[in-house]
Specification:
Thiol Ester Dehydrase, Chain A; mainly beta; 1 helix; 178 residues
Length: 178
């Protein structure tokens, strides 16, 4: 099965955070959670966003390690950016974040890499997996420091749940959502 990898990279600076937005597409041979998701007549397999953050002294606790609340705030922020880019025009709120378990300590001066990937879609909600890696400046090695699932729900202007917006559409009468 011939697969086509299409990488769309959008670099943008959000308060000193650089992100890379990429798409991995395969020609109509794979599905995301048994539901086809189309982009230019190809089926979307994985939609991920990579964001980087530098850990500064104001982010540290009294022991010199990253304060856990800052990491959870950044995870919420980067995943909100991802869901907003995936579903333009929709209003989302965070409804859940599962399992908060820090696998490795993070010291000041560390560069963190946040990898956000869509894992599940419902009628009104969408779930992402977020992996947080420590990047070694010396070797370039990535070490998994934290991982979680975060769920967003789509709301209307009155704060009531509504169906997900379509996001990107193909031209013509075929208006499949991502």
């Amino acid at each position: 099965m011939g697969s086509v990898q299409f990488s769309l990279r959008i670099f943008f600076n959000l308060k000193k955070r650089w992100a890379r937005y990429s798409l991995l597409l395969h020609k109509k041979s794979h599905f995301l959670n048994n539901q086809p998701r189309y982009f230019n007549n190809s089926i979307l397999v994985a939609l991920t966003m990579e964001t980087y953050k530098l850990v500064l002294p104001e982010h540290l606790n009294h022991y010199g390690f990253l304060f856990g609340g800052n990491l959870l705030k950044w995870i919420d922020e980067v995943s909100y950016i991802t869901v907003s880019l995936d579903y333009p025009g929709c209003n989302f709120v965070t409804v859940a974040m599962d399992k908060v378990e820090f696998k490795k300590s993070i010291q000041g001066g560390s560069i963190l890499c946040f990898v956000t990937e869509k894992t599940r879609m419902g009628k009104t909600s969408v779930e992402y997996t977020v992996h947080v890696y420590k990047k070694s400046i010396e070797t370039g090695e990535r070490i998994l420091a934290f991982s979680t699932h975060i769920t967003f729900v789509c709301l209307d202007e009155n704060g009531v749940k509504k169906e997900l917006c379509c996001g990107y559409k193909t031209s013509g009468s075929d208006k499949n959502c991502l």
